[in-house]
Amino acid sequence: MPFSRSAFLVGRLISVPSDATEQELDAKCAELQDALNRLTMLAEEQTQTN
Question: How far is CA 45 from the centre of its chain?
């Protein structure tokens, strides 16, 4: 789209052990979702037009 704004954001690495338990996987999944939500919010703030 012409004249659109974009943002490229990278969050911190989230490591998941290969032998993670179901509980650990659930916790990492929640951590990932929180990180994606934060990055989405930051990207939206950075691309707002006034």
Answer: 14
CB atoms within 10 A of CB 14: 11
Q: Taking the model in full, what pTM does it have?
A: 0.81
- What is the residue-wise DSSP string for 7-38? -----------TT--HHHHHHHHHHHHHHHHH
pLDDT at 32: 97
What's the pLDDT score for residue 1? Answer: 63
Question: Of 14, 15, 9, 18, whose CA–CA distance to 46 is shortest?
Answer: 9
Torsion angle (degrees, nearest 10) of CA 13, 18, 22, 23: -50
